[in-house]
C-alpha cells in the first residue's frame, strides 16, 4: 500500500515552522506497516496544490494531507481536492454543531467564516476535532483513501491516532518495526566498514546508518506479519552488530545518553556533583530532564569566572595563573573541589573555550577539558570540538555524560555495555 504525505502551508516553505506533522504521521504509520514513499510540502496556492495532488493521485493508494482546513480564504485544501475529484462540498451539520459548541464553551460568538470548516466533500466522513474547530476528512474514491487533517500538531495527532491509524491498520496485514542502536566514540565511516558485509547483503531487515551530533545511529528495520515476527528478524542482525562494535554502543531506540547515565547512577546509588564552565549548565540541564535524578544529582555549579572557580570550588590562584582556566590542572581542581564541598561520590567538571572568540594558537576555540573525580582519584579527558558556540556546547555536554557513563560502567556488575 503506497502512501504519501502532502503538507500544505506557505509558512512551512518559508521555514517559519518545522514540519513535525510529516514526522509524526510517518512514525505512526510505520508501526502498522504502511509504507510512506513520498513527503511533499506545498504552499497555500490552489494551482500548485492541484498539481501536487495530481501527482500523488497517480502514484499512491493513500494520500494524507495536513493543513489548509482553516476558516480563511487561503485555506484551500478541501476545496482544491474536491474540485480535482469533481465532488461537491456539502454542509455537515454534526461538524457545524461541534464548531458552535467549541465557541460556546469559550463564551465567544462563532464567526460566520467558520461555517466553511463544516463544508465537507460529499460522501466523506468527518473526523471529530477535540482540540480545535477544523474537522478532519476521510474520503474513499476509486480504491484510494484520501485523508485531510488540520495543520496544528496538537489537533492533528489525536485525530491521527484515534481515527486514521485504526482505519489504515485494517487495510494492511504487515508490521514495520525498527530497532535503533546508538554509538559514541566511533565515526560513521569506521562503523560502516565494520558491518559492510551486513549492509551489502541486507534485504529484510534493512540497516540504515545516520550520523548526528557526535554520535552514529543504526536503524534496523524489518517488515513482517506481526511485531514478534519482525523482532525475530531484527534480533540476529543486532546480535552480529553488537559482537563487532558493541564497545561503542550506549543506548537503544528513544533513550538518550542522559537517560543511560541517570539509570546507572540510580542503580548504583551514586551521588554526583557537577561544576561547569563553558557549557553554562547544559550538562546539568540534560540530567535534570530525567525524572528521579534528584536522588543522585546533589548540585550543579556554573563556575564561569575565575573568581567563581576560586571562591566556590577552591581552585588555587597559582593554578589559574600558571596554567589558565582552560587546563587539565584547573579541571582536576574543579572536579575535586565540587566533590569535596558537596560530599558526593563523584565530582565532574567541564572547562573550555566555546568561541567564537577567546581562542589562541596554543588554546584554540573548541579546546575542552573534562575531569572525573571519585574515591580512587581523578582522570581528565582532553577534547577538540568544532562547530559554532551552541554546537560546541552540545558536543561538550554529551562528551561529559559519556565520560561519566564510562566510569560508572567500571562499577557495573557485568562491566559491559548497559542493557535495557
Automatic annotation (TrEMBL):
Coiled coil stretches, renumbered: none
InterPro entries, per database record: CinA, CinA-like_C, CinA_C, CinA_KH, Competence-induced_CinA, MoaB/Mog-like_dom_sf, MoaB/Mog_dom
Residue span, MoaB/Mog domain: 4-170
First and last residue of the signal peptide: none
Family annotation (Gene3D superfamilies): 3.30.70.2860, CinA-like, MoaB/Mog-like domain
Family membership noted in the UniProt record: Belongs to the CinA family.
Protein name: Putative competence-damage inducible protein
Organism, as annotated: Fervidicola ferrireducens
Lineage: Bacteria, Bacillati, Bacillota, Clostridia, Thermosediminibacterales
Gene that this polypeptide is encoded by: cinA
